[in-house]
Write a structure and sequence with these properties.
75% of the residues lie in helices and 1% in strands. With 416 residues, it is mostly helical. Helix 3 runs antiparallel to helix 4.
């Protein structure tokens, strides 16, 4: 049984409490304006959560768009090294792959990082929306009104036994939270049966139940109960599946350079069909309120995707590539210089000492030092070229003169 008390997990617990606080605040805010309604609160809650996650959403969608642009280059790279399994080729391929990702300002794990960060937030969010009475105080108080007190359900003779025999036999009927756990999953017929079993509490139960129905009411749909095929609530799972399909279709509309031989791409294509069907089935096993959240979330996500795609379409890809390439080359140069100037370890000192009396070892050391000096020289040239490229962009005349000097120097070297 899913407990409707607050989540106390090490990771999800604190996140759920923060999200629950936001949900409770929004409900009370709406109540101040005469809008004590869970449906309205869920809409506002979804907007707030989407705004909080917007930076991660933009990064994730940026990665998705650039992955589509990078795919031809990555496929060409894979074809270039196809069949080459030696260590040198693999290392070179990885280096070229990193350069491609760096050129677009992304990384191989760019999309995964945002997803990993969002996952605990989404899990905690679902827990909060499934357990609204645990986090929204006014809703919980309506349950307490007829559970606790001298005339409440807990004070009735054989209450636990009667409840176990007629409803959930594994429920906890000794505490307020335990009873709310059971009552919050009740259908309309179960509420009627509860009134029949405890007629002495009938008025108290009916009054608070009507208040709960009003709070959870959305166009005559009770968001606190599970949708059924024979009621209007069936629209919730249907709309959930449709909006999810629409959102995924919008997200993948820009995916044109998909490798047909890539099993991951084929798997994602299958998920676009299977996922809405799965959500349709799940929609009939969870409260309608959670399904309504999925609908609102999918609609806002679709709007976000359209707006972000239009923003990303305006980016000058060539300019972006040139800037990122310069940054990447400069970073490589710094790393090369750092490695070259790194203080010798005690082991390196020991090796040098041992080489003093070995002419062959000395020759190898001299060659290695020559290679290091050459690498430092190249690193300096890369940094200089990067700086001149930036100068050329900000001052075209100065950049032209610099390139002319470089050509002149090259010709002078060749004459010698």
């Amino acid at each position: 049984m899913v407990l409707l008390t607050q989540n106390s997990g090490i990771i999800l617990g604190p996140i759920a409490k923060v999200l629950g606080f936001i949900l409770n605040w929004l409900f009370e805010f709406c109540s101040n304006y005469g809008l004590s309604n869970i449906g309205i609160t869920i809409v506002l809650f979804t907007i707030v959560i989407k705004l909080l996650l917007l930076p991660l959403t933009i990064k994730q969608q940026r990665f998705s768009k650039f992955s589509n642009i990078m795919n031809p280059e990555l496929q060409a790279l894979q074809a270039k090294y196809k069949g080459k399994t030696d260590n040198a080729s693999m290392m070179k391929m990885q280096e070229e792959q990193r350069a491609i990702y760096a050129k677009y300002g992304t990384s191989q794990v760019g999309g995964c990082v945002q997803m990993i960060i969002q996952m605990p937030i989404l899990f905690a969010l679902y827990r909060v929306l499934q357990n609204i009475p645990a986090y929204v105080t006014p809703v919980k108080n309506l349950f307490i009104n007829f559970i606790d007190g001298a005339n409440g359900l807990l004070a009735q003779n054989n209450f636990a036994t009667i409840m176990a025999e007629n409803f959930n036999p594994k429920g906890d009927y000794t505490s307020i939270n335990g009873v709310i756990d059971v009552l919050n999953t009740f259908s309309a017929s179960n509420w009627e049966k509860l009134v029949e079993l405890f007629p002495q509490c009938a008025e108290l139960i009916t009054t608070n139940r009507e208040a709960l129905v009003e709070i959870y009411n959305l166009f005559t749909i009770d968001l606190s109960v599970t949708p059924t095929l024979k009621s209007i609530s069936v629209l919730i799972p249907i709309l959930t599946a449709f909006t999810q399909w629409l959102s995924m279709k919008t997200l993948n509309s820009k995916q044109t350079n998909v490798d047909p031989d890539n099993p991951m791409a084929q798997s994602m294509k299958s998920m676009n069909t299977i996922m809405p069907i799965m959500i349709l089935a799940i929609g009939f096993s969870v409260p309608a309120g959670l399904g309504f959240y999925w609908i609102v979330n999918a609609v806002i996500t679709t709007i976000q995707q359209v707006v972000i795609n239009r923003y990303l379409d305006k980016i000058d890809i060539e300019d972006l590539k040139n800037r990122n390439k310069a940054i990447y080359e400069e970073k490589k140069a710094r790393e090369a210089e750092k490695n070259a100037n790194r203080p010798e370890s005690s082991f390196q000192k020991y090796v040098k000492e041992a080489q003093k009396n070995n002419p062959k070892a000395r020759q190898i050391t001299e060659k290695l030092e020559a290679v290091r000096d050459e690498n430092l020289k190249k690193a300096e040239e890369i940094r200089k070229a990067s700086y001149e490229a930036q100068e050329s962009k900000s001052n075209p005349k100065k950049g032209l003169a610099a390139r002319a000097n470089m050509v002149s120097e090259f010709n002078e070297k060749n004459k010698k």
